[in-house]
Amino acid sequence: MVTAQDGSVQTVQETDQPAQRWIAPGLIDVQLNGIGGYDLNDTDLTIETVKKVVEVLHRGGVTRFCPTVVTGSKERMLHCIRTIANACDVDPKVAHAVIGIHVEGPFIASEDGPRGAHNLKWVRDPDWEEFLEWHEAAQGRICKVTLAPEKPGAIAFIERLHQLGIVASIGHTAASEEHIQAAVRAGATMSTHLGNGAHPYIKRHPNYIWAQLAEDRLWAGLIPDGFHLPMSTLKVMIRTKGSKAILTSDAVNLAGMPPGRYTTHINDDVILEDNGFLHLASTPDILAGSATPLHLGIQKVAVSGIASLGEAITMATKHPAELLGLDQEGIGTIQPGSPADLIIYDQHPDGSWTILVTVSNGETVYEYSN
Asked: pLDDT tier at 157 (50, 70, 90 boundaries)?
């Protein structure tokens, strides 16, 4: 074996096959709403559904993730948060996989564009008492909250999150540069899916995308599905953010489902195109989450030539681990004493890859078969 600069380990074998076999850390997805038909925001979410999500993620090499609960009624959000926490209590595989719960909204911009696909009727102002209800339902498992810093009370809210060691992430915002700087001073450390949750047309500069891109203290979550960001824009953002660029899926339950028109409890009608583009039926330029799993997004980055496959993997392993403080435990890397979360994969000459084995917490949880 040889160790590459990106930290992955290559197994050198004598073979006539063009693919190269590699070992890398298990993938970390910091934003996942659902996948494979399983919805983490369902009003009837069950522990079994959470287990199924973890199983599907293992097939794509994801060993750790942040289940994401999005803007909704207080009752629905509390139910989903509580169910995810309960699933961690009863299933060791789920407990290992769930880094913590990401709450995206409801304290976001109400206007069209920045609000994205979040339903307007559930958008509200920051409320610390409501957060404490989440915190109790989650049994302390909330690790990240996405909010708009221009909302009334948002800056004080961010300060409190920071004091608790919870990542405050800027997202679904129409904030001014001043609001963004105030949020960073208060303790915000991340941008949620930078470049999305935004107006389709904005002033060229200054604007809230440039302001976050230029802020060196902010990590940036980036969706590499080819739809949320043009590949040229993704390239610029990755090059600018460097070691603070994080690839994430933002996958929803329709990821992996057949193309068609769907009705969801969050949005009335969404359309999944043949090419994987998922958008609101009423507004084609407003996306409704991603239908691309993380491992396929990583592949798009590599095939496009934006980064090598190893570099793309690093943006979905080492970087998110550093954001969430997991690197102190050896998560996101392969080294002596680190948790045995890893994948074995074949890298093909065109930059694509095939995940062959996923190991989570020392246990083989997925093996590829033709």
From this structure: very high
Residue 285's pLDDT band, with cuts at 50, 70 and 90, is confident
**CB-based burial label for 178 (10 Å; 0-12, 13-18, 19+):** exposed
Q: Return mean pLDDT, the chain.
A: 93
| SS3 track for 194-234 | CCCCCCCCCCCCCCHHHHHHHCCCCEEEECCCCCCCCHHHH
Q: Which residues pair with 169 in a beta bridge?
A: 146, 190
Cβ burial 57-93 (10 Å sphere, 16+ → b, else e): bbbbbbbbbbbbbbbbeeebbbbbbbbbbbbbeebeb
CB of 228 closer than 8 Å to CB of 195: yes
Q: Which strand ranges, in their side-by-side order, compose the sheet holding 62-70?
A: 27-32, 62-70, 101-104, 142-147, 167-170, 190-191, 219-222, 245-247
224-266: pLDDT as tens digits: 999 999 999 999 999 999 999 999 999 999 998 899 999 877 7
Residue 137 and residue 160: Cα distance in Å, rounded? 18
In the chain the first and final C-alpha atoms are separated, in Å, by: 26
The dihedrals phi and psi of 181, each to the nearest 5 degrees, come to -65, -40
pLDDT digits (tens, 9 = 90+) for 189-207: 999 999 999 998 999 999 9
Q: 284: buried, middle or exposed (CB in 10 Å: 19+, 13-18, 0-12)?
A: exposed
Closest residue by Cα to residue 308 from 89, 20, 11: 20
Single-letter amino acid, residue 24: A
| Cα distance between residue 296 and residue 53, in whole Å | 17
117 and 196 Cβ atoms separated by less than 8 Å: no
Pairing mode of beta strands 101-104, 9-11: unpaired
**CB distance 105 to 118 below 8 Å:** yes
d(CA 215, CA 181) in angstroms, rounded, equals 8
Query: CB burial class (10 A; 0-12, 13-18, 19+) of residue 235?
Result: middle
What is the per-residue pLDDT across 29-72, written as a single tens digit (0 to 9) for each? 999 999 999 999 999 999 999 999 999 999 999 999 999 999 99
